[in-house]
Amino acid sequence: MNRGKFMKHKIVFFDMDGTLYQTENDVIQESALDAIQTLKDKGYIVCAATGRPLNQMKLILQRVQFDYYVLINGSYILDKDFQEIGSYPILQGNVNDLVNFSKKHETGLMFHFGDATYIYNNFYPMYDFCKYCNVLDSLFYDPSQSYHLRHKAFNAVVLTKDKKLVDQFMETHPNLRNDLINVKTDGFCFDIFNADNDKSKGIEMILEKTGFTWKDAICFGDSTNDIHMLKKADIGVAMGNASDFVKSYANFATTSTYDNGIYNAVTKILKDE
C-alpha cells in the first residue's frame, strides 16, 4: 500500500560518497538498500544528491535506482529516465582560465561534462584519484584539451601540491568556489564550480517540479558540500563519520556509513512519521 500521502515528509535526498556509498571499497550496505526500498514502498520520492556526474554513478545504479538525480554538486539535474531537468554550467571564460592555469602550473585537471569526464593534464595523478573513487571505467583523456570548447563543463577537479596556487586563482575568480576533497591523493584535490551553486540549488529545482517544499524534505549527508541541504531540509541527517562541523548543521547524527547509518536513521524517522 502506498502510504506516502499520509506521511509528514514526501521526498528524501541521499548523498553518495561517505553516506550511502563506501567509496574506498565499493560497498552499499544491504541494510541501506532495505531502508531505501522501505521508503519507496511507503510512497516517498527517493533522490540522489551527489558531487558525482552521471557517468560515475554506474556501480551505484547497479544496486539502486532513484526518482531524481542532483548531480555534480547541484549543477546537473535529471529525472528518473536521465532526461535533463536543468543545469548550471561553468561560464566558458572561467573554463578557459582553468585550462590555462593548469597548463601554466602543471596541476592535475579534470572536467565533469554532462555525459563524460575528461582528464586534461597530469594524467597519472588524476588517474590515481579516480582509482580511489572506483570510477576508472568512466574516464577519458583529452590530450588536445579541447572538449570544453564543444560541451558544457559543470565542474573541474584540480590536483596540486601547492594549495596557494588554487587560492590565488580563486581570488581572481569570485564567481567560482572550491571545496577541498577529502581523499588519499598525492597533494591537495579541489572541486571547483560556480560560487552560487550547491546541492541545495539543484534540489530546489526538483522541489519546484514536484510541488514540494523544504518542509517536505529529508536529506542525508556527511561532508561540507552537504551543509546547505542539511540545514534547509525539515530533517537533516548527518552520518556518524561526518565532522562535528557538518553535524552541527543537521537535526541529528546517525551511526556511520559503515555501521548501518542509513537504516538506523530511516528507522528512527519512520517511527516519528
Automatic annotation (TrEMBL):
Keywords: Hydrolase. One of its GO terms (cellular component) is cytosol. Pfam families: Hydrolase_3. InterPro entries: Cof (IPR000150), HAD-like_sf (IPR036412), HAD_sf (IPR023214). PANTHER family: PHOSPHATASE YKRA-RELATED, PHOSPHOSERINE PHOSPHATASE. NCBIfam families: Cof-subfamily. This is Cof-like hydrolase. It comes from Holdemanella biformis DSM 3989.
